[in-house]
Structure formats: structure tokens, C-alpha cells
From TrEMBL:
Domain DUF302, chain residue ranges per copy: 31-93
Protein name: Uncharacterized protein (DUF302 family)
SUPFAM superfamilies, per the entry: TT1751-like (SSF103247)
Matches recorded under CDD domains: DUF302
Organism: Dokdonella fugitiva
PANTHER family assigned: INNER MEMBRANE OR EXPORTED (PTHR38342:SF2), SLR5037 PROTEIN (PTHR38342)
A Pfam match: DUF302
Domain of life: Bacteria
Length: 130
């Protein structure tokens, strides 16, 4: 799932980290791919990855399918495209559940991440019209 953000790469992930922590989720790591590329003498548009989640929510998925550890903690990737727009992407919870053959009822444990990513991007579903 990919959303256009109203903010820059760093600001988008700052917002996501703040929103996640406000909901009691942990921020485990942040990787700045562009900084690492520059340190290696390479060029890369702004691109950062945030790893976040809640062990109480993720552990039940890991208990039934250890391989889900490839996708947990959750990861959100914010990046700048060639036109300068910022995007934020996250694997859909339904994809993670299907990929690792996790019982469908456990999807709810990680589904709330989508609302956090949308809010970090500046998407207000309460104001959206259908």
C-alpha cells in the first residue's frame, strides 16, 4: 500500500514515529538509505525505513507462523520520487497474513498500522468523502 505524503521524507517518518508511540507502539529502528548511500560515495534520493510495532500484537502471529518475522516488526518506507513528491509504503496486513498463512482473525492485530501510515502522510479519512 502506497500513499502520497503531504510532508517530506523525514517529516513523514517523524510523524509516523510520534503517532505510533502515542498509541503505545515501539519504534525499533530507523534506516536512512540516502545517508548511507552518501557515506559510500553514492547518490540516492531521500529514502528512509521505520520499523515499528507492538510485541503484544505481533507475538501471536509469530507463535503460529515463525516466518512472519520476515515482515515483523512492521516496516514503513518513505521515499522521494524523481519529481520530488514524497510517498510512504507499507505491506498490507492482509498480504502479511496470507503470505505466512496466519489465521485471518489475527490480521486485526496489525491492521491499525494502516491508519497510522495514512495519518502520517496527512490523509484524514474522517474528512474524506466517498
Amino acid at each position: 500500500m502506497t500513499y502520497r505524503s503531504a510532508f517530506g521524507v523525514a517529516a513523514t517518518l517523524d510523524r509516523l514515529a510520534d503517532l505510533a508511540q502515542a498509541k503505545g507502539l515501539a519504534v525499533f529502528a530507523r534506516i536512512d538509505f540516502a545517508r548511507d548511500a552518501r557515506a559510500s560515495g553514492l547518490e540516492l534520493r531521500e529514502e528512509q525505513l521505520l520499523l515499528f510495532g507492538n510485541p503484544k500484537a505481533g507475538t501471536p502471529l509469530l507463535q503460529v507462523s515463525p516466518g512472519v518475522g520476515l515482515d515483523l516488526p512492521l516496516k514503513a518506507l518513505a521515499y522521494q520520487d524523481a519529481e520530488g513528491a514524497t510517498w510512504i509504503a507499507i505491506n498490507a496486513p492482509s498480504y502479511i497474513v496470507a503470505r505466512h498463512r496466519v489465521p485471518a482473525d489475527l490480521e486485526a492485530n496489525i491492521a491499525g498500522a494502516i491508519a497510522l501510515v495514512e495519518a502520517a502522510a496527512g490523509i484524514d479519512r474522517a474528512r474524506s468523502t466517498s
